[in-house]
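= Protein in question =
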Amino acid sequence: MTAPMEQLLRLRASIDNLDAVLLHTLAERFKLTQQVGLLKASNDLPPADKDREAKQIARLREMADTAGLDPEFAEKFLNFIVAEVIRHHEKIRSEGTD
């Protein structure tokens, strides 16, 4: 195999490993947000928390900038995750916490 192809395969293997880390991390995050959804529903708290979301966006944008990642991308990524979390929280609320 040629040197460029070997390097490409190594890079892709590293990317695949990072994709697995991201997926497992997201799964753990959603397990925690499910618990938050149950807590919110049990205590009649709203599914969304705009103040928290704004603070998280600012925090993630700063972290992204420090890490050399586009802050716009980080914000879009967080907004995507938050939208899914809110959807889960609304579903939990509608189904009840019994």
In short: The two ends are 59 Å apart (CA to CA). The domain at 3-95 is CATH 1.20.59.10 (Chorismate Mutase Domain, subunit A). The chain has one domain: 3-95.
